[in-house]
Fold:
Amino acid sequence: MTSKKTQMLGTTPQDIAQAASILSAGGLIAFPTETVYGLGADARDDTAVAQIYAAKGRPSFNPLIAHVADAETAERYVAYNDVALRLAQAFWPGALTLVLPLKPEAKISKLVTAGLETLAIRIPDHPVGQTLLKAADMPIAAPSANPSGRVSPTTADHVLAGLTGKIDAVIDGGACPVGLESTIISCVGTPKLLRAGGVLLEAIEACLGIVLQKEEDAETPTAPGQLASHYAPLGEVRLNAESLEANETLLGFGPVEADYNLSRAGDLTEAAANLFDCLHQLDRAGVTKIAVSPIPQTGLGAAINDRLKRAAAPRP
Structure:
């Protein structure tokens, strides 16, 4: 892959217009959303989308999420059903991705869908992401802006650490407030949870009045974030650690003695926002063995534990 000169852009109208121009020309832009930074390309352009896979080193059987500015735009590409309409009205814009049947006339690159007849789509709830989507006037395919399988980025500096020279520009919109990727729900047939994330499963089930089936691990993914090994720091990860073993560094939760702590107050929202940044800090410190305090499996804890389980999984 040819090395690119990666620019750091701000959030002025001129910067956003420049980013939109790069996207229109088939380039790659990293941009902030409320969840994590996304690595964006025109979702209709095969060559542009192929650059996402090349920059990330991502397996091409792993689908991407298309980001759009509003529900009306989403309807150009996917067919809504009653379940999707209820979820969209309740949680969009926001940290929820819906997997829906792809319309035949959609003209979305098959590299985005990994050849499936469905599309994962969402509307980000972030002023910079929204401004870029409106300025670019296109569906933007955007996985997390990091090397595939590694820790997701929640700041522009995280993006630069992993992808400098591989992408055209990064829009620096500050730290991502949610800090975990979107929840993914399949609305094809019986609704299923494909990935826990920024919108609570309990809230989704309350909205629909049902208990969702779960399909969070898949050899052939139908949505992003289903690979067993993902979000991995450089060091080995051991979960639910009540004490430290030899040469381990503690990633704490709650009132424990630890140089790295997701939330000393035991606040799951704060822990979610800090998770990926703490893993980046451990990487920068050269930590080779990471012990993680137990995290409750309630609320956002389910999504945090999902990410940590994949971070601790055997590497491919």
Summary: The mean pLDDT is 92. The chain has ten helices and 15 strands. The chain has two domains: 7-214, 236-312. The CA atoms of residues 193 and 214 lie 5 Å apart.
